[in-house]
beta-N-acetylhexosaminidase
Amino acid sequence: MRRLLLLLVGALVLAACSDDGSGPATQPTEPTASPPTTSPSETPSPTPTPPPLAWGPTQAEYDEAARIVSDLSVERQAGQVIVARYAGLEPPVDLIAELGLGGVILMGDNVESPEQVSRASAAIQEAGAGDYPVIVGIDQEGGSVARIREPATEFPAYMTLGASRDTAMATDAARASGEELRAMGLTMVFAPDADVTTGPDDPTIGSRSASSDPALVADIVSASLAGYAESGIVAVAKHFPGHGSVPADSHEELPVQSAGLDELRARDFVPFQAAVAAGAEAVMVAHIDVEAVDPGVPSSLSPAVIGLLRDELGFDGVVVTDAQDMAAISDGYGSGAAAVRSLAAGADIVLMPADPRAAHQAIVDAVASGELPAQRLAEAAIRGIALMLHQAAAGAPPDPGVVGSNGGLSYEESLAGVTVVAGACEGPLVGDTVQVVGGTDLDRARFTEAAQAAGLTVGSSGEVVRLLGGTDSGAGDVVVALDTPYALGASDARVRIALYGRTPGAFRALVDVLRGAAPAAGMLPVLVDGVEQQGCPG
C-alpha cells in the first residue's frame, strides 16, 4: 500500500515539473500516518519518534532523500542510480564527479591491502562531495567470493553455517565481517547469499549457499542480516529469484529457470521472503530467464519478476541488478538498453554496466523521450540516497585496528561446521605424522602450518591426508572436501570430512578434529549421494 500511495502522489507532484524532463523532478515522500486525535479533556501525549521504514531508513531520512533528489537534474539522478566498476588500484574519482555516480564496487584488481582500500574509499567519498555517502561496495561473502583476504580476516564459505545450523554464529560472523569492511571505508556488502543450492548440478552458487534446505537458508540469512545491520554496513541479499537451482552460470550465458512458480515459491523464494520480513535493506536480482513468469527476458530486466519481489514478497527497499557486464546481459543488450530496461522494470541501482557513460547517457535520453518515466528515475534515486543517509547514521566506522582481528571467530565458525561423514566422531583420526597431498600450494601450506603449530609432523610418511578443492575425488587415508562435499560420496577413504573452507581458521579446525583435540559437530547441509553418515550431531 505504501508503494502504491508513493507512486500515486508521485504522479501528481511530477505533473507540475517541466514537460521536457530536463529539469529537477520533485519526488514524493512515503506517506506518514496521521497523528492520533484526542478529546478536549485528554492531555496530548508526546509525538512518538517515527519508526524506521520496513527496509531501514527512517521517514525523516526518506524525506531528506526526496528533498535532495528534487534539487538534482535528470543528469545527476541518472548518475545516482549507477554503481560502476573500475580497473586498477586508483579509484575513478573524475568519473564519479563527472557523472555524479551513486557509487563504485571494488573487485579483486582494486585491492592491494587494507590500507590501500582505506585510501581508495576516502578518495571515492571525497569525489562524491555530497550530503550523503557514496556507495563503496564489495563482494565479500566468505569462501571463494571474497575480494579482500589476509591480513583482513578470511571467513569460510557460507555453507559452513548451514553445516553448523548456528544462527548466533551467523550473526556474529556477519557483524565481524561488516565491522572490518566499514573500518576500511566500505559502505555496502553484496551478501548474504540467499540462494538455495540444489546439488552438484548447480555450477554457480555451490558452497556460497548455506544449504539445499530452504528453511535453513532462511534462518541463516535472517541471522546474517541482523549481524550486518549491527555493524552499520548495508547488506544486499542475493540473487532473487534464486540462482542455486539453475544449471548454468549467468557470468557466461543466460540461465533458464524451468521450474514452475509454485515450486519457486516453495523453494527459492523462501529465504528472500524471510529476508524481507527481517528488514532487508537491499536485494539483488539475478539475470535468469524465468520461463513461468517472463520467458526469454532476464529477471533483472523483467517488470514481472521484479513485480513478484515488490508485490508478492512485499519488498519496498532498494533493488540492485546483478552485474550488467555479465554475459547474460552483455551478449544480448548494450549498456544503455540494459540500464534503461532494468530501471523501467523496477530496479533502483544499475550495477557494473559495461560502459558507465553509455548507460548514463541512455538513461538521460530515455527520460527525455518518455521511454523511462521521470518519476521512476526519481523514485530509484530517492531509495538509494535514503539508504545511504541511513548508513551514515550508523556513525563513525570502527578503528582500523579491527581489520584482521577476528581470526578466532573464523576458526570457531569452521570448527562448528566440520562434518565427518566417514570415520569416528571422537578421538584422534590420524597418528603423529601425516602426509598432505592435493589442493593448491596455498592449501597445503596452510594445512602444514596449522598441523605443525598443533604438534603434528607433516612429511613423506604417515597417513595420507588428501585435500579436494572441487568435485574430483582421490585416494587417501583421510579425504577432505574444501568446498562442496559432493566428491566425498565417490571416495572409499576410511575418514571423509567436509570442511567448506580453505582459510587459516578452517585448516586449524581440521587439524584439531584430526588429532582429537575437538569434536566435529557439523551435519551435512546438502544431500551427498554415496554417503550414509550425515555427520556427528552434538
Q: What stands out?
A: DSSP finds 18 helices and 18 strands in the chain. The chain has two domains: 59-402, 418-514. The longest strand covers residues 234-240.
